[in-house]
Amino acid sequence: MAIRLIDFNHTGTKEDLPEIKPGHVVKVHQKISETKVTGKKTETKERIQIFEGLVIGVKGGSGINATITVRKISGGIGVERIFPINAPTIEKIEIAKVTKARRAKLNYMRDRIGKATQPKGELATEADNKPRVKKGAKAEAEVETEEEVKEEAPVEETTKETAVEEVTETSEEAKAPEAKEEK
Q: Cα–Cα distance between 63 and 141 in angstroms, integer?
């Protein structure tokens, strides 16, 4: 029964999300649908809204119920939103800045004002936005790459004897043209 529950929790998860940790500054792209009623007509527009802020908490790990709490300061007022990362309205999540956090929940950031709310860290690279890989798939991918490397570039073993022979041959060849020039 436990196997079925695990399978159920991983069926709706998104595979293209990066590994998000507390302390990262992320950009969450969320689809917003707007309906406008004019007379008898109803118009529906979809747009993507970006919410950029600091991840102060991650809940649920990588399961289907996983959520992240993102906080930003807008107009001097702190705004927090909780995003279910596997929701169909979430288009994508990008990591903008990677910082190191020593705690799992950064609730103390709520009391900070001004520049103290900006975490110190490095700008994110393309490697940070790569999708996370399941443990089993990662191990298989590493094995394949090691085998490919072995097939592509066979390594010739050199011993001391072959190295000495090569050195003596090259030194004799170098001396030979000098002897011809002297004659």
A: 22
- DSSP secondary structure code for residue 167 in this structure: H
In a 3-state reduction of DSSP, which class is residue 17? coil
Q: Report the domain count for the chain.
A: 2
In this structure, the answer to whether residues 81 and 25 fall within a common structural domain is yes
Domain-embedded: residue 19: yes
d(CA 123, CA 116): 18
Instruction: Tell me the CB-side half-sphere exposure of residue 145, using CA atoms within 13 A.
Output: 6
Over residues 94-134, the pLDDT tens digits come to 999 998 888 899 999 999 888 887 777 777 787 888 887 65
Its domain, for residue 169, covers 156-182
How many CA atoms are closer than 13 Å to the CA of 142, on its beta-carbon side?
7
The pair of structure tokens assigned to 16 is 């293209």
